[in-house]
Write the structure tokens for this entry.
Amino acid sequence: MGIGKAIAWQAPVRVVHSAGANAAIADTFIFTAIDADYEVVSVVEVHDVAGTDGSAVTLDLLRCASGTTIASGTTVLGSTFDLKSTADTPVAKEISDGGLAASPTRILLEGESLGLNFGGTLTGLLGIAVTVTLKPVT
């Protein structure tokens, strides 16, 4: 499709990913644009139990071209989520608060995917949920 091509009006898309124990938390693809280009407009992260490792414990949301690994993607966030932050407290990153990367970095072209990239030792981290809101780009 490509940026600039008209598409019929579509409601925003919400993608939700959750994982329980730290052993189940791993880098993973969560969405692939198959019918249009999309703009990431909001990302919200919450966890039940904060990470406890002595070094940074983070989460990044990456835009990945087809055929590439998550780690080689481009971040759509202004900064990563701190997974050692207060438990049960949602943290939102939005266009309006500068929490997301500048356009066109946060634009997902048809065929590209979004992937979650966890950093650090996830010891102690439990019950993570991530909600990404995307809007079709016309």
User: Anything to note?
Assistant: Residues 1-7 have pLDDT under 50 and may be disordered. Strands lie at 13-19, 28-32, 38-49, 58-64, 74-75, 81-82, 91-94, 107-108, 113-119, 126-136. The chain has no helices and ten strands.
